[in-house]
Amino acid sequence: MKKSDLLNSLQEAIRTEESASAIFLTHLQALTERMGIDKALAEEARQVLEHLITENKRHQAILEALQKQLKGDERHDW
Predict the structure, then answer these.
(1) pLDDT per residue over 60-73, tens digit each?
(2) Rg (alpha carbons) of the chain, rounded to whole number
């Protein structure tokens, strides 16, 4: 794989993680502020969504570190 192709794939994966976190945050807000669902169920859903957001951010950081490493590497084929 060419370095440029790999970097493009990583950038797309980073954008996907950012989008997913934004979507989860929207759902979290809807559950906690706008929907009249059972408070215990809303709390459980909130915890799950917060965990997903945390993991997305962790994964995004891993992808960004890999992207930085690749940019600094002189190889062009992977």
Answers:
(1) 999 999 999 999 99
(2) 17
CB 7 within 8 A of CB 78: no
- Asked whether 2 and 77 are in contact (CB, 8 A), the reply is yes
Q: Write out pLDDT tens, residues 39-56.
A: 788 788 888 888 988 999
Q: How far, in whole angstroms, is CA 30 from its chain's centroid?
A: 19
Q: Distance between CA 68 and CA 10 in Å, rounded? A: 10
Q: How far apart are CA 58 and CA 42, in angstroms?
A: 24
Q: Note whether 22 and 53 are within 8 A (CB).
A: no
**Cβ burial, residue 17 (10 Å; 0-12/13-18/19+):** buried
